[in-house]
Amino acid sequence: MIRKYPHLVITVFASLLFIPFLGTVHLFDWDEINFAEAAREMIISADYSRVQINFEPFWEKPPLFFWFQVWSMKIFGVNEFAARFPNAICGIITLNFLFYYGRIWYSDKMAWWWVLLYLGSFTPHFYFKSGIIDPFFNLFIFLSLVQLYLGVREESHRTKHFALSGLLLGLALLTKGPVALIIIGLCGFVYLILTKFKLFFNLKQLVILFFAMMIIPLFWFLPDWIKNGFWFTGEFLKYQADLFLNPVASHGQPWFYHPVVLILGCFPATIIAMPYLFKSPPIKAGGLAAWMKILFWVVLILFSMVTTKIVHYSSLCYIPLAFLGAWGIYNNQGLLKIWQKVLLSLVGLIYGIIFCAVPILASSKHWQSLLSAKIKDDFAKANLSVNTNWQGNEWLLGFLFIVLIILSLSIYQFRSKEAGIRFMLLGNSVFIFFISVLLIPKIENHVQGSIISFYNQIKTENAYVETVGFKSYAHYYYTQKRLPNANDKLSIETRNYCKLQNIDTIGQLSELQRNLVNGFRKQWFLAGNTDKPVYLVYKITNLEGIDSNLRFKLVMNKGGYKVFKREN
């Protein structure tokens, strides 16, 4: 069965791991809720051409992934399952592509290693159960690079492969923006350097790639240019540049952030692939290993230089990491160096201890008390104290993970090297499924469950709901914010404020203007003549004097959040 129908086996196994229980945990603030809210607002406003948040232009991301979520929401409803379902499908497609290319260029054995290393590593697996953009972006970039590689390898079909590379690059642009062009461009440039600038294309083929790349994004940009001019496009490009030059959204981190994220997050693929990240594969037509290594280092160095550092920025490293690990196992019959076995044991033990410790600390009042005494952050203390339905035996998952690591390395050492690695990867893929069902929902309840439950309670009310002192998208999505009415008092007052500030329209706010408008709205909620009830949400570490404001009364105090209500 496995040999005869490998794609069917991959599809069924991946479906069982990715799709069940997708909706059992709330979407996580920021990115998951942010993207799902953009899709929800497309449906509510019936405006599918522009991305919106809070029914105002949102230029951080192009719309392709949100269109996928819209399609899913129209089938399954506006919920967590629908928001994550597109990435589950992306995961199934990605694994099938990895097997297909591994098989046609190497062998079934190499193909299976590539799939298993991707499926059996933590963050690559988890991202297919999430509602973030990166899995589709990574797939399109990988497929575009494959076509570029084929263009080098197959000179007689180079024009066709460059055209396909451009089309796939266009899909990546419409998924995440100009960074797609930067990554592919840098990969091509590095390949030229390594081949001493021996051109693998002519001007005509480069022009074809460029125009093919522009076809798909123009379906989005062109109608907006015709209707509204270049304002939105300009703000979109300015924001993308700002991500590279400034630590946007408080995500500045040290330069070594992404290497650490990959070692710990992409376990065990990173450790298995490490020797082949530095060992130079042959640079020649037909050398896919060279292109995968180039892709890895371009992404890692680029996003280590970028001042805004977020975990999933380096997720494009996952595919080349899994490939290089598979390439090493395939060519060396699963031989691992001593330091790799030590590192696998150490990181595996750290994970096992964490998986044991978290349930014990969260379920025991005694341990909670001891831990709270050590924590200085009052918000974190309040998170820990949230009443969650811990059974007390969840620590067994951590114990079983440690057993998995020990058994894997024992099989490797005493029976078969490849069987030991295979046991670890298959066991890890199943383990990830169980922690996503049994642990993650409870951890999420500590982090944000209290405030999201409150939003769900008031979603039927016709009220203003806003966060103060921290950034969030949960109050839009989980209160199911309605399309603003032009006759609402807030809409009228905002338009009047914009006129005083010489802002032409609320639909064309620069980032600076948006901050001004948000500041005005906050003051209006606090002291203005409102026409609806107002809920203001604060973290307990930054109340800004609201607790002494006689217009407001405290209606919720749980999980590190306080909500104050003002009647109209």
Q: Overview of this structure, please?
A:
By secondary structure, the protein is mainly α. The protein folds into three domains: 327 residues, no CATH class; 101 residues, no CATH class; 117 residues, no CATH class. It is 65% helix and 5% strand. Strand 1 and strand 2 form a beta hairpin. The longest helix has 26 residues. The N and C termini lie far apart (67 Å).
Helix- and strand-based class? mainly alpha
Mean pLDDT metric: 87
Envelope shape: globular
Order of helical and strand elements: HHEEHHHHHHHHHHHHHHHHHHHEHHHEEE
Instruction: Give a quick account of the main beta sheet: strands, pairing sense, barrel closure.
Output: 4 strands, mixed
Describe the structure concisely.
The chain has 568 residues and is mostly helical. Helices cover 65% and strands 5% of the residues.
Descriptive keywords:
3 domains; 568 residues; four-stranded mixed beta sheet; mainly alpha; globular
Give the helices and strands, then pairings:
Layout: H1 6-18, H2 31-45, E1 52-53, E2 56-57, H3 64-76, H4 80-105, H5 108-119, H6 122-127, H7 134-153, H8 158-176, H9 179-194, H10 203-228, H11 231-245, H12 257-265, H13 269-278, H14 288-305, H15 318-332, H16 338-363, H17 365-374, H18 378-384, H19 395-414, H20 417-438, H21 440-458, E3 464-467, H22 474-478, H23 489-500, H24 511-527, E4 534-539, E5 553-558, E6 561-566
Parallel strand pairs: 3-4
Antiparallel strand pairs: 1-2, 4-6, 5-6
Helix pairs in contact: 1-4, 2-3, 3-4, 4-5, 5-15, 5-20, 7-8, 7-9, 8-9, 8-10, 9-14, 13-15, 14-15, 16-17, 16-19, 19-20, 23-24
